[in-house]
């Protein structure tokens, strides 16, 4: 699987609240820096929140994405528009993001994700 295919799988797993697929795509030491709060979330926390629908993504539109590859590493940068709910509170975000993938045993796994809000 190529890095952009892994990227599509990640976003699809978020939309479908697919915990097992997130577990497969995310590296064991995965770290998310949240686009809305700047908080850090590790793999188990993100999977639990998504699989239980505590965080529910209703829409994730990837408006652009680019990949830069290095031996065993791929950096995907792009722009998204997303909408969903955190518990009962709706959220929406337009953001730029950077995702870092590493190749492990023939699979591209996401190790770090950071979003930055686009405010204008």
Low-confidence stretches: none
**Percent in strands:** over 45%
Q: N- to C-terminal separation?
A: 35 Å
CATH topology: Nuclear Transport Factor 2, Chain: A
Overall spatial form = globular
In CATH, what is the class? Alpha Beta
Tell me which oligomeric state these chains represent. Answer: single chain
Major beta sheet summary: 6 strands, mixed
Rg computed from alpha carbons, rounded to a whole number of angstroms: 13 Å
User: Percent helix among the residues?
Assistant: 25-40%
Please describe the topology of this protein.
Layout: H1 3-16, H2 19-25, E1 26-33, E2 40-42, H3 43-51, E3 55-70, E4 73-86, E5 89-104, E6 107-117
Parallel strand pairs: 1-6
Antiparallel strand pairs: 1-2, 3-4, 4-5, 5-6
Helix pairs in contact: 1-2, 2-3
Would you write up a description of this structure?
This protein is of the alpha+beta class. The chain has three helices and six strands, in the order ααββαββββ. A six-stranded mixed β-sheet has the order 2-1-6-5-4-3. Strand 3 and strand 4 form a beta hairpin. Helix 2 packs antiparallel against helix 3. The longest helix has 14 residues. It is globular. The chain starts with a helix and ends with a strand. The mean pLDDT is 95.
Concise synopsis of the structure shown:
The chain is of the alpha+beta class. The chain has 3 helices and 6 strands; from the N terminus they run ααββαββββ.
């Amino acid at each position: 699987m190529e890095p952009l295919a892994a990227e599509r799988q990640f976003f699809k797993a978020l939309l479908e609240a697919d915990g097992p697929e997130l577990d497969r795509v995310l590296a064991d030491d995965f770290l998310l820096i949240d686009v809305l709060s700047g908080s850090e979330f590790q793999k188990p926390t993100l999977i639990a929140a998504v699989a239980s629908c505590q965080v529910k993504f209703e829409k994730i539109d990837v408006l652009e994405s680019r990949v830069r590859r290095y031996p065993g590493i791929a950096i995907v940068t792009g722009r998204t528009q997303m909408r969903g709910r955190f518990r009962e509170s709706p959220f929406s975000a337009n953001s730029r993001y950077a995702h870092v993938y590493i190749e492990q045993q023939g699979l591209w796994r996401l190790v770090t994700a950071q979003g930055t809000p686009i405010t204008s």
